[in-house]
Records
---
Amino acid sequence: MADIDVVPTEFRNVEFTADQIRGVVARLLVEAGLVDHPGIGSVRIEVDESTPLSKVVTQSLEPLVICAQSGALEDRRRTRHFGGDEAADALGRAVFAAADRLDPTFDGPAFDADVGVAHAVAWDCHVVGRMARLGHRPQRQRRLYSFELRHGFSDATVAAFDRLWSAERLTWAEIVAISDDARSVVGAA
Amino acid sequence: MRKAFPPEDLARDSRFARVDRMDQIADPRAASGQGGGRPNQRLTPDRADSADAARSLMHGIFVGEIQALEGAGRTCWDFETGTDGAPFALKLDMARQCWDEARHCEISVKLSEHMGTEIGEFGESAFLYQAACNPDPVLRLTGVNRALEGLAIDVFNTMKEFGSISADPVLEFCEDWMLADEVTHVKMGSDWLRKLTEDDPERRANALEFQRVVDKLFSFGGFRGEDDESPVILARRFRELAGFGTDEIDEIAAISAEARDEAKAHRASLAAQG
Amino acid sequence: MADPHAPRPAFAPWDRRELPGSFTVEESARRAGNYKWIEMRLFEALGGWIATVPELDVKMRLGTHCYHHAWHAELWHKRLPELREMNPERLAVPPNEQMERFVEALTEPEAADLTIEKLVGVYRVLIPHKIAAYTYHLNNTSTITDAPTIRSLKFILHDEMDDWRDGEMILQSLIETPDDVRRAAERQVELETILVAAGGICGPGTLGGPTSDEQQPHQEVSA
């Protein structure tokens, strides 16, 4: 098992503990098949507790470094408190996306490439669908809404979303194709 | 059943979690500003977090509708008809508002389902209902129907525009209907304020001052305003329909700008303290 | 087409309306006043309870029903001057002290765990009594002279039947255990007893027989 470093080790602005975050990430690494991955080495989670925003950015793959704003790991019902489901969702999307990138058959975009928001959302849907089948809080409708916002509100969009959500493993090219097809249907309508 | 029902006793099922507005204000991360220092907080589909931002705002609308329903209901109950300044027709208006707010709750539940939000997914602050606890019916109506329902006009108009830009037919349709009701409620507040204080300029002044306080509180340090920094835009046209004069709308815009500037100064002082 | 100038009967063969009715103008006004009073008490109570019930569906239903009863109160308020009562407040009173006591008891529960008690009072006691009183009025008033009251009664009864069904279904969904059944039944007995002592929502004579004023049966007005 890779070492999981959480920064900071003690929090001042939020009621989080490093162990809570470490516990969530340890499970995700196992589920994403990264636990013994030779490339990632140690894992580092950097939390920016100066802001309640919720952006999560993967800074490096090897070693795996994920930067999360504190709002991403926060219980939506309790200000400044750690939310296990929220953290698993936010960090899980980053960890599973990292696993995709590290899989040569996925043939993903270059790490520093600018992935458009529609493709990024489509990728998220594919990742969260897999996480849901592993027992994480599904929030299928939440992801569908996010997908529809970027691909239009239509039956074709729902069908495209279902393909992303239910597929066990898609390549980057397949994700892009599903996203582009969905957008072209709406654009043509 | 008591007359006057305190906010802390509002009944909720186990899905709901109450958050204290003071905890939010005291959050040290507030130093980074409304929206965490994001320069443009306008809700637009091109924002990376727009889906979750819309879901969060929609849940806020939902619990706000519950509290508006409760507030209108309490106005039916708390005041004796006629004897302490709550005319029969005013109470009929409040009962009508109960029905409208109940429908808004129903619409909000359906919209939340559409957006993938679970009931109680976000915390609920009861400070909207607090404005509905004023013991003077004129002040209560001015605070609720002119200030809060006025804010609802701004919020619904913002959400309607978001639905329109994102081509979400469900959201745009629902927000437009709720917007129509809110214009009616604000007009009710304006009409009753005029009628009940016709011969009492001091009471009218007090009511308008209470409205200013509520308007400022609900500008949330820049939450509602006329610039790009404000997530919710002052809906001038719909406010005019609801009986607001241009000078009154200008005043709300000024109050909102003042609230935003004060919040900026507060954040700067927090940041300076480290 | 029939000759437009040919004389036709004023009442078509299918129009069976008749003049006789059980109520004088004064008695109609008295009842309308009682109706307005109880509809007001009911919409106020439903409004007040919204904040006190934790069940979301019940909260929203109470908000909807609150307006129905307010609108009924408004219909009676408007009908009173048409019945020669130029000060509608004068007759918007309870028929007797027992009826006031009934409303006090009805509106007493507040705690969040008393939804059954709140709803039983409204949907198993008061609204069935209102439906009975309104139906009695509808079936006994003159279908020609009192047509405006009949029109209001029909609108109101439509709401009352819908609301009764709504409330009863909510109650059946809330009553799950023998203890719940006992609570509902005890509450019904408690309130029904007071309402029976009041003689109904219009006092004695609500469903016929002598009113408290007359102490004798209504006189049938014949054509």
---
Amino acid sequence: MIHDILTCYYKDFKFYFASRIIYLLLPVYIMMAAAFTFWGTDFYTASSISMEQFFKLQPLLFIIIIPALTMRSIADEYRSRTLEVIISQPIARQTFILGKFLAVWSVCGILLLASCIIWATLAYLLTLDNFWIFCNYISSFIMCGTLCAISLLAATFFNHALGAFAAGLGACFLLNNVNLGWIAGLFTSRSLLASKIAGSFSFSHQYDNMISGQIGVSAVLYFFSLMVAFVWLSGAVLDYKRR
Amino acid sequence: MLKVTNLCKKLGDRDIINDISFSLNSRGITALLGPNGAGKTTLMRLLTGYYEADKGTISIFGHDIASQRRAAVADLSYVPENGGIYQEMTILEYLKFMSDIKHISSANFFQRLPQILSKLELTEVLHQKCENLSKGFSRRVAIAGALITQPKFLILDEPCEGLDVRQKINLRAFLKECSRTCAILISTHIMEDVEALAERILLLTEGRLICDATPRELKNKAHQFSIEDSFFTLTQR
């Protein structure tokens, strides 16, 4: 099982370098992250310098970047008919999807790692809370994993890259922006508690909590359970398409 | 080795495969023939486990593909028509990936590699990316990927498509050699391939198996002298 996952993982991970996608996305991501951090906010007028804005904007950046990474992941397998070859191998569909998921998550890790140049620049010039920044990098990486999983799930429904990108973008946007508290409020208008509980299950709420303080077990569990669910569902969708 | 019983498959509202039953021995080459839309590709996809059958069973080496898919396809290799290779990989990377996914050890892989490369004339392009290859080379890479795993059951969809005459002759000879140790099922529209390779013919029309015979029996049945004419006569009915 581990051997199969690693074989699929290496194949997909190499794909991002061989197809040069990463070389295009890396500078775009760094420039956008730097632009948002330094010029899009009150960075120069704030009383204390931090990377708070950088981390707050991470979901917004990855909502665009991750669907661009996952859009060819399944669509290319259909187009080149390699999916037929892979499915005829003695590996489970979930294993195949898990390899793809880990590959795209690793690429997100590389992008985040490259953005450390912003951290290094600021740390050289100013005094920063480096532990807090490190924790937030971990939080951002975990958040990326969930976006990768839902984007991959959306991509499994489509045989064309453009459709997969649009679906991934929509799915990531909805996951990040849907306020479950507000939706719960529509159905249980008198119960503030219900809205509050439902609201705490919102993606943005969990991420904001993670980057505002230390990484909590509940938030980590929340993001990882979503990842497992979306990856499993992606395999199930591929399985369903056989019928 | 392969036993197909009362196989049915619908795609949308259309019956693509309609109550097909046949079996294959563990050696030899069988040609799967039929006009366009007869259900050849769907049948091959069912045999590889890509599609799930609506009715009927497929048993490969005694393993039911519906309930024991991984065991059933463990010794099976499939080459789809027009593709089946990763364009961004080099040939060596692709062949290594195919052997890794079948759990072939590196020692076995490198032992088998020179023979496959020389038989399919791929030695000189081993480090080239698949995206830079011509159609004929791509076809041979796909076949090499299937053969590197030493399958006991090989399914090939249009194996000689895009090959020049010399390559076709070489590939046919190599497939003949392979068929001494493994069962090969070929779907093709090239009747020369059928004449040269097939020991048995399965003829499909509109999702039904209308003939399961040796080339000689097929010609006798159609009262024709060539497989091409026999194919034409039998599929007209």
---
Amino acid sequence: MALDEIKIGGLGASRRRVEDNRFIRGKGNYIDDIALPWMLHMEILRSPLAHARIRSIDVSAAWAIPGVRMVLTGDMLAARNLAWMPTLSYDTQAVLATDKVRFQGQEVACVVADDPYIAKDGCEAIVVDYEPLPPIVNPSQAKAPGAPLIRDDKTGQDSNVVFDWEVGDREGTDRAFAQADVVSTIDMHYPRSHPSPIEACGSIADFNRATSKLTVYMTTQAPHIIRAAVALVAELPEHMIRIVSPDLGGGFGNKVPVYPGYVVSILASILLECPVKWIEDKSGNLISTGFGRDIYLKGEMALRNDGRILGVRMHTDSDHGAFFSDAQPSKFKIGLMHSAFSCYDVPAAHLTAQGVYTNKAPGGVAYRCSFRVTEAMYFQERMVQAAAADLGMDQAEFRRINLVRDDDFPHRTPWGFLTDSGQYGKCLDLGLEAIGYEDFLRQKEEARQRGRLLGIGISTMTEPLGAGNSREYDILGIKMFDSAELKVHMTGKALLRTGAKTQGQGHETTWAQIVAHELGIPAEDVLVEEGDTDTAPFGMGTYASRSTPVAGAAVAMVSRKIRAKARKIAAHLLEVSEEDVEWELGRFSVRGAPDRGVTIQECAIAAYSNMPDGMEPGLENNAYYDPPNLTWPFACYIATVEVDPETGVWDVLRVVAVDDCGVRINPMIVEGQIMGGLTEAYAMANMQFITFDEDGNCIGSNYMDYLLPTAWETPGFELHEVVTPCPHHPIGAKGIGECATVGGPAAFVNAVIDAIGDTGVRNIDMPLLPDRVHEAITQGHDVSGAPPVRTEP
Amino acid sequence: MSTLFEEVRPSDGGAGDAVPVRRVELTVNGERRAADVEPRLLLAHLLRNGFRLTGTHTGCDTTNCGACTVLYDGVPVKSCTMFAVQADGHEVLTVEGLATASELHPIQEGFKDEHGLQCGFCTPGMMLAAKALLEEKPNPSEDEIRWALSGNLCRCTGYQNIVKAVMWAAEKLGANVESDGADDAGDDAGGEG
Amino acid sequence: MYPSRFRYEAPSTVAEAVAMLAAADGEAKILAGGQSLIPMMKLRFAAPAMIVDINGIGGLDYHRSDPDGTYRIGALCRHADLEKSAALADAQPTIAAAAPVVADPLVRTRGTLVGSVCHADPQGDWASVMVSLEGAIVAQGPNGRRSIQVADLIDGPFQTVLAPDEIAVEAVIPAARGARAGGYLKLERRVGDFATVGVAVSVEMSGGSVARAGIGLTAVGPATINASDAAAALVGTALDSDAVDAAAQLAAEAAQPRSDHRGSADYKRHVVATFVRRIGAQIQRSEQEAA
């Protein structure tokens, strides 16, 4: 009799998480929990100014403090050719500033001491003499004639422009606009945001002079990429570097890049020949590490009166901060911005993009998204709402008319991606039914008669997840595969390692479920390990919702390799030919004689004790999976809100989410991902942003100003599902980790704009602060949130 | 620090270098502990680095995130916003003190069963804030739970499952109380609570 | 995250504490709840040479009413003590309204009203509440005790008229000349956020009209604002909507907000007026329900 897949924790089981056993006991092993013998502690001194020339740095008082073991400055690094490091976007970034500081919070010096309190004392004792320079905090300042040149360190860089880039069919799009009945336009800014995992970054570098081996424990979502980067930057042999990523207190893209703190802690360990620990504080994390978004849109849509979209034009201006260190693996300067409108049937589209340097923190990251997909889908869904309004058409109906139909796959998107599956109309209809669309429209009208403002916002989108196929992706030329290694022990228990790195997604639980599905080994018999480059197979890490699409696929593939070998062993044990062996979950049997069979566990012991002649012993293998395409989940998010017309405060009434991420490995975990994503969407729409004043001071560099919602404000979520298996993924799964963060914000913003629809306001930039909403209601104009913030009395 | 010796800097004639430390004695998870600490040492750091109770996390530097929440004489506090010296003579309960040797606290079970955690970093603080709530209000409403946990930030879960986890624990604790009453088992049989 | 070094003293009496402060030459800070002081020390915005921890001083954790109706709140009475007090809701409705919205639930278990008032943060809630109640702080120094009206106590952002060797030992709210009513409304984006705007309105109703009124404004000026003209506009009225409108207008004029990332100055003034109206309407509604 076949095993019950749910009972053994296979596909579809809401298996309780293995990793929780240590987390609920306070026995996780996060970076700051690791202590090595004779370990010293490092703290970073940061620039208080956004743009200034460094006249001098006096470190003598810091050296004089008892317990201070080393003070490092840019000059010391420059002497070792380490003052600058290469970025993932082919630029350079200062490790410690030598010539100028280029953003507030930039790393200027590091102090290593017996404990972090003393290291901080040391930082405070350093005297830096700055000559202030005018700061630049937005693209128009960056491009203004006579603007100060931020990157005067780069030869040939004579402006603050980082890149100009375009994609699409310019002429065809022009023709579409010439034929339009209506052209709908909208301008907006997607504010700078920060992934802000509750745990900030940190590292412990441990260089052993005797063996020349460097071990670095660090908060990284991509340990193997870090190993390669360290090999390049520090010019150490790659096999003598071991990166260990311990339990991560969240990542969300923030723990992908290489940060100066990591680099200096490594150097300090090499110089001091002892372990050096750097634990970033939250303020340092928010002010200096990988941000998300900060991009401006001019969007135009060519529309026919019957509601059809004829063409789309987008122009984006992106603010990259002081160094172009976007941590993104796509081959496109503006990431996957041109995945916008992938769920709609749009005949012609053209995108131009320009990026600039500013005096702000560098290092755009894919904050809970594939790079720029969040902005793409937000712009798309805001443009769609404005277009429906311009046509005087119901927003749901406008979407229904333009969504790609089920029989239209594979579908070439307006900018050339290939989507392969989905039931977009079904998801929309399910969402509308769940929220009670028609009823709500009636309630809204009744409320309006009584002076109350209700609104409903819809966001529908498909997004490219799972970086990625080599047509669209690489990291410094390396293809974006991932890997799995499976060792089935003789007792049928197994060890699985992958090149991904969990940060809360529950890989230790779900990967075992894939093995259970493929081999019938109960999930509880499979130990999953990740994050140690000395033991894990080479992989590209976890971000861009790539774990399930790529590493998860590798887990399935390696399990199938194991099964293929086990089948040969089974044939040998059953004394039949391989063709006469049939597989059912967990067991091989003889065709036509189902009672004669052997379990996978019996094959495992035989692999070490009784294998066929000529067969290598053992039941171990690995798989490297290079995905043929991205996966394209679809989502429909609908929010209803009530706006207080007197104060501009808005409250969420309900949120309905319909997600189609293909086959769900662990439904409980998938739903957890969706709820977490929706919360970040709500946060961005409502309160969470980083902005700057005209002096370049970062506002949002701590949790007093950078607001994450609490349990009190965060609304409840009603989840629904549609399952359209991914046609090219071994188990039919698609990415899910970021969908709600990507698609969610537009639902909230569309709802608020819908609520104040009578004002004619088309846009309020996120976050929809009460002040901004109130201004839109009372003044009847769009409200921009672009920095600098207004600080006049 | 070694008990046999402590390295000091070679004297340069000055005599005022000695850093004053104070002896603190406190009860941590039911066990009496003592340490000599600098007054500036935060309670969170004494627990983590002094007593190696690393389940108490520090997630921010502005007293907002609540990852460091412990029970101080039974009251939930942010241990990053107290000095260790203030704990002298007091009782502290950390996440490590929630479970007994043989069984988990129902709050721990609830967090696991309702998927109330993902990365796990905020979880110890959440659970201790929840424990304080349930001791005060054994049957809290959803709003009361959300209110009581609003000093603890979570970035992963969206709180919905955390709320369910606390409700799960409330139910189990309630059932324990009832069954304790029913079989008149006295104080010890109920385990923790 | 790592405070600077300081000397630590934990006196067991107020007199001892005063002596320590006097010896510290203005370099000492008092640690009560510490929920504002310690965060500032962690960021090294504050680095006092000495900390005088008063948590070990007995008998300061009370809040109670004198027989004559005078209300006293000791220096170690925590926000949570006020929040959880059933008696307070009737006796001191403005305080009862403010207590649950101060900071967050965990900060409230440690932080104190007296400490918050003396911290003199323009964004602090309690000072506005106390101003609206004509409350005072009792300070003890080497020469004994004195009482200072909260409206006079604060003389700038994070500045008070307390002498370096004085300790605030209690807050005192004078007895009402009628039935108390009042409220506190705070615009914040999430629990624990600093107020964008906070408004405290306290009235004492006698014979259907307002015998005394006070209005305090949070986060709309360089210090807590005592909107006394606005409050005066309520006295003698039946708290009708015209009177409340007039007070709302005057309160908005008394505000001195600054535009920042939380909102424009005009918006904050508008919210001040709106909140005065809303609290006025709340009081009226409950008066009507009572009648």
---
Amino acid sequence: MSAHSSAQPGLPVLPGALFGSRQGEITQVPSPLQRAVDVTFRRLCHAFAWFTILLVTFIVLRIAMSAAPAMREQGWGFLTGRVWDANAGQFGILAQIWGTLYTSILALILGTAFGVAAAVFLSEGFLGSTIFGLLKYFGVHLHPWWGRLPDQIERILKELIELLAAIPSVVYGLWGIFVVIPLIRPLCHALHEHAGWIPLFSTDLSGPGVLPAVIVLAIMIMPTVTAISRDALVSVPVKLRMAAYGLGATRWESIFAVILPTASRGIAGGIVLAFGRALGETMALAMLVGNSNQINLSLFSPANTLAALLANNFPEAGPREVGLLMYAALVLLGITLVVNIMGAFILQRAAKNAAE
Amino acid sequence: MAASVQPIEPNSRPVASPHDHDIVMHCDIRELFYGNFKAVRDTSIPIKKNSITAFIGPSGCGKSTVLRCLNRMNDLVRGFRFEGKVRFRGRDIYETGIDPVAVRRFIGMVFQQPNPFATSIFNNVAFGLRLNGYKGDKAAKVESALRGAALWDEVKDKLHKSGLSLSGGQQQRLCIARAIATEPEVLLMDEPCSALDPIATRKIEELMTDLRKKFTIAIVTHNLQQAQRVADYTGFLYVDTSMGGRTGYLVEFEQSRKLFEDPQHKHTKEYIRGEFS
């Protein structure tokens, strides 16, 4: 019996529906309401996705349009000039570009080292085995409460590190000024005194400068690196760990030769994300970096960043300067975009190599 | 209920005669716990040189647990506690002062799931050589290990390719190559074919009978035919639920032929006849 002839007279057959329900059947074609909800939901998702893309395009476009007069007026010289002097009418952002990249890269190195180390500590059960050993010594490792303690502590530590990301940037700035700078000043002074011939220590720390900015920035991006690296490390299949241990690798050998390389793609993703954050970080850097347009390798000299330049100059900017700042903003946007694209590219290459 | 091994007449296959000095490892588990859970009790199995010893039994009978005792892989499980002895090279590997890492270097392991590292085929096989600080010709050792695992002809032109690019059966043979590259005295295999198709399984089985000439093998399998085909000795473990727990123990240990043709114990008979799994 075909589906068409079996349609019951009382039941409406929807256009496009293959079957009508027979008497007493539970199965029904989707009701008009179900269909309507389905279609609406799908269209809404489409609309929101496109809206996001449009929004990004709109932002970039508006900034570019506002920057256009300044771009025509200054040309490429804007990117290579080292002086920003409104009174003299000289505008150049090379020092800011340098400062942005220098502080971000140094912070990235520092933040990655600490972040990945923390992630390894949290994911490889170092704490757990120490505490568990201790509990075993006291004979309470099988206790329903005490036996769970190692995992609980690990979870709390993880939450604490992620909490670092929740501290507002301006609080970091204040902390940097009133805690970090006084703390590191004696050391910086001594380094400059005794190792001043090394370019990194060639000036003295007079207050704000690259190093305090880098330290605070590293702390700010560390949670990102830690959280993403930890997820990547945890998702390394247990069978790979077992393979390494089964071959007689020590814990360190397993971590360095197998687990970290396997998780490297996820870790690299975290690093790229953190780099993006470091490049765009504004408030803490505006407070800590010294806002002085210098290009200097010294860790103790003040510098400036693009984000800090924008934050510091907007309040008093005239129409012409707003255009110039828009130009600088576009450059910052460009750098961030290039970094993200490069990151995506590296990740893709890594994925391809792993699959081959 | 630990079954002892009677002296036996020579098997049809060239099996080493079962004198005591031929016993490479002697596993003697009295009690084994994971936390408060008693997983295995009273299991004593001798593992003889250049033979294949299979552990069979229903799911949850602790056969894998017993195997993982033999190279202290269980130490990685939190709450693991062991009472008994595993004799190897004149010492108990659970003695204080014995480093589990060292044990695992002398007693290799192949796992249920093929688990090559996300690196090249060559590096996969050379991993153990590097761990052991092997100074000789790595390439030659890698080649002989891959030949030993019957994989060389398939991969000799793509040693730099990722181990993950191979098929499941090839990956498992790569893992075998990785395990035998350092020439450990004993090779433990934990259901090495259960993730593979019949053709790949057959290849691994042929490989095992080949490897027996050089290594001593202990294997866990839930495939009775496999145990029958490859194993010289078979231990049947059963799970005891009488005390409300699920504790595995050794019911019978015999030459495979004898165990399969003339099982002595009721549980063994039922299991071999397929009356439960």
